[in-house]
Amino acid sequence: MKKETLSRVLMTAAMFIFGTLAPFVRNINVSSGELALYRAVMAVALVGVFLLVTKQKLSVGSIPKERLLLVVSGAAMGFNWILLFEAYRYTTVSVATLSYYFAPVIVMVVCPLLFRERLTAKQILCFVMATAGLILITGTAGGGKQDLFGIAFGLGAAVLYAAVMLLNKFIKGVTGLQRTFVQFLAAAAVLAPYVALTSGFHLGDLDGLGWGALLVVGLVHTGVTYCMYFSALKELPGQKVAILSYVDPLVAVLVSVIWLHEKMTLPQIVGGLLILGFTLWSELPARKKK
After folding, report:
1. CB count, 10 Å around CB of 158?
2. Which of 68, 76, 112, 265 gets the most CB atoms within 10 Å of its CB?
3. How far apart are CA 83 and CA 13, in angstroms?
4. Residues 6+ apart with CB under 8 A from 5
5. In this structure, are residues 91 and 141 in contact, taking their beta carbons and an 8 Å threshold?
6. How far apart are CA 201 and CA 149, in angstroms?
């Protein structure tokens, strides 16, 4: 099998696994902060082993210069997980996921301010249409305040995920899986005192199903999947990565409707298509005229 073909398979599999996260999260009876901490700790362990086995060394010489950025981005990643897990608890998985996938739109709008780039007509159109999609989803939330809280948590997670993506643009000395390993480590270090001061630790309260779901979330959805993602990422062009990354929200919506039997209204479907479609279009490069 060719390298690029194998990488496409790995990337697709990683995105598919990411899309099945929500049902496992819902079966883990601990607070969102505690779950995020355990996810980070297990990911650190598994990714650390992968780096050792593949003999990938951390570029420790440049880390001190970017230590603050790594810690802040790691903390943002950890709290992004907390808000996403809360979104799953308050609203349907499809609505939470579609709210969360507003993150690329936020990045698209903020980049011109940070990097002195001009917003193109295409980007403005994508922003307007994706925002219209979000309004459709928000305006048709059927569960009242519960759903609105879920959407708010999903958008909060989107803001933090956008912050992680933007901070990563400033981190040059550590790249790929090595950078993510350090961010997982920073997330665990920040979340440990946060959990101790808020919800506390309740691993002993988990039943067999909870333990199984926790191991799957920490080891499979985070550790294994990030290793697959970054192994594939270096072999694929950006356009293919952008397209394949949308397997995640599509699978999440299907899981919501087929597995969890959650309903989606027609306006929510249209809103989701607007968000995903125009966000994807904004990430694809324009074709050069012959």
Report:
1. 25
2. 76
3. 25
4. none
5. yes
6. 25
Q: What is the pTM of this model?
A: 0.90
Which of 266, 258, 253 lies closest to 99 in space, CA to CA?
A: 253
CA dihedral 183, 246, 101, 142 (to 10 degrees): -140
Q: How far apart are CA 73 and CA 40, in angstroms?
A: 13
- How many angstroms separate the CA atoms of 137 and 98, rounded? 8
Burial 76-87 (b: 16+ CB within 10 A, else e): bbbbbbbbbbbb
CA pair distance 40, 78, nearest whole angstrom: 7
**What is the spatial distance between Cα 86 and Cα 91, in angstroms, rounded to a whole number?**
9
- Which residues lie closer than 8 Å to 208 by C-beta, 6 or more apart? none
